[in-house]
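Sequence, please.
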């Protein structure tokens, strides 16, 4: 046997002896192709700020495999002490308001100031095929290439309930990876806005010029969620009209309950094309952060959000366990037929189901 082979054998024997004395069983994440990745390795990779490992961690948490779900929660538990240290901003707006353009411009400015920015986009999965758009990286090309930024679409898998779990957990992973500003983008004005409001510190609404026309397609409830109203695309011929729209929104907000205690909802004009008003938006966000922290409401909101998350997860788990039972699914099917054939009222069917 050559000296090189002998040396290798000796070193392998030393490693095995050392591992036998000191090694602690480490959880592995087995991928479909058979490749095994150490959970602690993923955790360390996330904490090092690696976008590659952050992506792997999110994929693990999003997996529907029961074993992967278990491993994902163990990973999240390891990283929890390193979370909660970011400023979470929700951004919504009517279709055509330029949310992606604004986020890219805003994100580029923040990274130039030394911040690390994560963008989580609530992506509407098809209720028929389960497929999703996932087009955010193509709509934010510059920001996607920025080493200080991370963009991740969060497919809802056809249900908004998925927003609660996946987006919240992804947000925690991003915080553990050192991203100090997290932007959560929603697809438009609807139920998803209420869910996103429940997981961010500040909620911003992008609108277009002409407040009167804008309100025709906007529910009052959406305005009541907003901490800031950004009149976007305030450039060219729209610049003058944007100022008027800002004033109109300021007047409207006098008649609405503030979305956050100790903070009065502001409105500002901005243009991502001319890069105007973006700095003012950031100054407003910083002022909001300082105000709510000084008042003590920041901590209160975070605790309320965690409690709401906990309770929503109870509902999700009850629903999942209820329908995972094959016999119960069969009973539900039979009762549905009786309801549809008018043999039972819906209320009677429910009573029978829970007997």
């Amino acid at each position: 046997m050559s000296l090189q082979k002998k040396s290798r054998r000796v070193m392998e024997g030393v490693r095995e002896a050392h591992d036998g004395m000191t090694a602690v069983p480490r959880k592995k994440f087995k991928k479909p192709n058979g490749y095994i990745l150490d959970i602690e390795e993923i955790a360390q990779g996330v904490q090092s700020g690696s976008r590659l490992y952050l992506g792997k961690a999110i994929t693990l948490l999003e997996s529907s495999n029961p074993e992967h779900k278990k491993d994902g929660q163990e990973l999240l538990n390891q990283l929890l002490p390193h979370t909660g240290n970011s400023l979470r901003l929700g951004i919504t707006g009517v279709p055509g308001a330029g949310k992606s353009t604004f986020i890219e411009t805003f994100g580029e400015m923040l990274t130039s100031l030394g911040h690390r920015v994560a963008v989580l986009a609530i992506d509407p999965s098809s209720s028929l095929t389960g497929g999703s758009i996932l087009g955010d990286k193509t709509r934010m090309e510059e920001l996607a290439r920025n080493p200080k930024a991370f963009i991740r679409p969060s497919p809802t898998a056809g249900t908004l309930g998925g927003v609660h779990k996946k987006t919240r957990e992804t947000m925690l992973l991003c915080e553990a990876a050192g991203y100090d500003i997290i932007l959560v983008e929603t697809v438009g004005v609807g139920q998803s806005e209420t869910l996103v409001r429940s997981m961010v510190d500040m909620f911003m609404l992008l609108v277009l010029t002409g407040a009167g026309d804008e309100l025709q397609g906007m529910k009052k409830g959406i305005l009541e969620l907003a901490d800031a109203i950004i009149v976007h695309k305030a450039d060219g011929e729209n610049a003058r009209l944007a100022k008027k729209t800002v004033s109109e929104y300021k007047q409207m907000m006098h008649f609405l309950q503030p979305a956050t205690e100790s903070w009065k909802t502001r409105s500002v004009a901005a243009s991502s094309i001319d890069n105007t008003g973006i700095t003012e938006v950031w100054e407003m966000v910083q002022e909001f952060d300082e105000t709510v922290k000084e008042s003590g409401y920041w901590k209160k909101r975070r605790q309320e959000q965690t409690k709401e998350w906990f309770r929503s997860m109870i509902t999700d788990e009850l629903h999942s366990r209820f329908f995972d039972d094959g016999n119960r699914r069969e009973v539900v099917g039979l009762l549905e037929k009786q309801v549809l054939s008018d043999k039972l009222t819906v209320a009677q069917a429910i009573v029978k189901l829970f007997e």
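DSSP finds 16 helices and nine strands in the chain.
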